[in-house]
Each structure stands twice: as C-alpha cells, then as structure tokens.
Amino acid sequence: MSRPEHQAPPEIYYNDAEAKKYTSNTRIQSVQAELTYRALELLNLPEDEPAYLLDIGCGSGLSGEILDEEGHMWVGMDISPAMLPEVALDREVEGDLFLQDVGQGMGFRPGTFDGAISVSVIQWLCNADRSSHNPKSRLTRFFSTLYSSLRRGAKAVFQFYPENDDQCELLMNTAMRCGFEGGLIPTEDGKPKMPKALGEDGEDEPNVVAYSSQRTQERQRTKGKQRKSIKEKDWVLHKKEVARMRGKKNIPLDSKYTARKRKPKF
C-alpha cells in the first residue's frame, strides 16, 4: 500500500469522504488513543493540575478527546478543511481549533503551552507538495516556532512514520538545531519498541533511556477517575465556564448542589 503523503497533499488527501472514514474507523480510534496515552506518558506532566497543550495535526479531534478526558485544556491545528469544519466541529470537540499549515510555522506567543503532541503528522513535512516548498526550510520554520511557543522546560512528543533513515536524520537534526533535545524511540507494528536498559544482555548503551508502558496501561484502566475524585467540583465548574465562553446555551447555573453526588433512586 502506498504511503498517503505520496498520493496527495494532506489538505487534498483528507477530503470529506476520507476524513469521515478515518474518524469512524474503530481500529484507527484505538491506535490513536494508544499513541496519545503514550505521548502523555512521555510528556510526564504533573498529575495534580491541568496543562495547556498543543495538538499538532489534530485532525477530527481523536487525540483531543483523550487530552480532555485526562483533564487538560488544548488547542488543535490541522491543514485539512474537511477534518476541522466538516468533522471536528460537528463532533463538538472541546479544544480550540486552527486551520493552518504547520510548515508555515505557528504564531503563538512565546511560552504559551505546557507541552505539545503530534500523532502521524511531521513526516508530511518531508515532502515538497509545491514548487515553493523546501522540506528543510519548512521543518526549520515548524520546529523553531514550536520551540518558541513552549514554556521553558516544556516537552514535545512526535509520533511519525519515517520513510527511511534519511528522513529520521533530517527531522532529528533540524529539531536539535532549533533548540530541542531528546531521542528517538523506534516502534514495531505500531507499538513502542522499548530500548534495552544499560548493561542488559551484556550490551552497554549509556545513551539509551528505557521507558516503561506500565503508566500507559494504568492510565487506560483509570482514566478520568483520579481527576474527578481529587477535585470534581472544580473540574465541573471549569467545564461549565469554558462552555459559557464558547457561547453554548442552556448551561446550568452554579449552586451549592453543583457536582454533588445524588442519592440513588429506589
């Protein structure tokens, strides 16, 4: 099967039919959720407070739904008109959405976000879809403006499907020249391939960090439960305030009964 980025630019490839098919596919939903949980694990955000995150290439908001369930606020950006107005808005996702080509950079104020994630996006920037496109220049613009938009010490996690080693090297070198530090975690069959720990099987790998998937599995078992048990009323009040700011109607008024558990009916 040919790679999507070889068939057409993303704003054309993800047309109305492809956008709806992508969003309704249960396997894609499952993979997207697993990759988003993995990205959150690597971001290593504080668990006792919500973060303000950027979802790069948010599509129809599948990743954003996970961010929302985990109690975070987020902004999503995507180049496909079919994904954003046609699907994401119809699904009433919680994040704020921008229709934008990430290869042109992003105009957020410095230090805006507590972290950023990107699922299956940045490999598209390695292609020149137009005569004016230069992959190296577009990647430099992307990484430099993203680095500026993150607060000091914040992390960004990118999941992508490189076509070859040259693409990996191009992406890694460009990101590091723009200020990022970090490494690459290979995957097998869509699942993270864990690097061997230092000295395992007699191999000396001082520059490799071994990550555990235990936290991801724990998130999937208890997602949302810990957040609600810690400060359920604050969370409900925040969600109602966000809904009012977005102009939604019929939002219940705040009262002493807000978020109070109801007695079971017999």
TrEMBL record:
Name the UniProt record assigns to this protein: 16489_t:CDS:1
| Residues spanning the signal sequence | none
Instruction: Print the organism lineage.
Output: Eukaryota, Fungi, Fungi incertae sedis, Mucoromycota, Glomeromycotina
Q: Which domain of life is it from?
A: Eukaryota
Q: Which GO terms describe its molecular function?
A: rRNA (guanine) methyltransferase activity
- Primary site of residence: cytoplasm
Q: Which organism is it from?
A: Cetraspora pellucida
Q: Which UniProt keywords apply?
A: Cytoplasm, Methyltransferase, Nucleus, S-adenosyl-L-methionine, Transferase
A cellular component annotation (GO) from this entry: nucleolus
| Disordered: annotated segments | 183-233, 247-266
Q: Name one GO biological process term.
A: rRNA (guanine-N7)-methylation
Q: Where is the Methyltransferase type domain?
A: 54-132
UniProt-listed InterPro entries = Bud23-like, Bud23_C, Methyltransf_11, SAM-dependent_MTases_sf
Protein family per UniProt: Belongs to the class I-like SAM-binding methyltransferase superfamily. BUD23/WBSCR22 family.
Compartmental location: Cytoplasm; Nucleus
Residue ranges of domain 18S rRNA (guanine(1575)-N(7))-methyltransferase Bud23 C-terminal in the record? 190-264
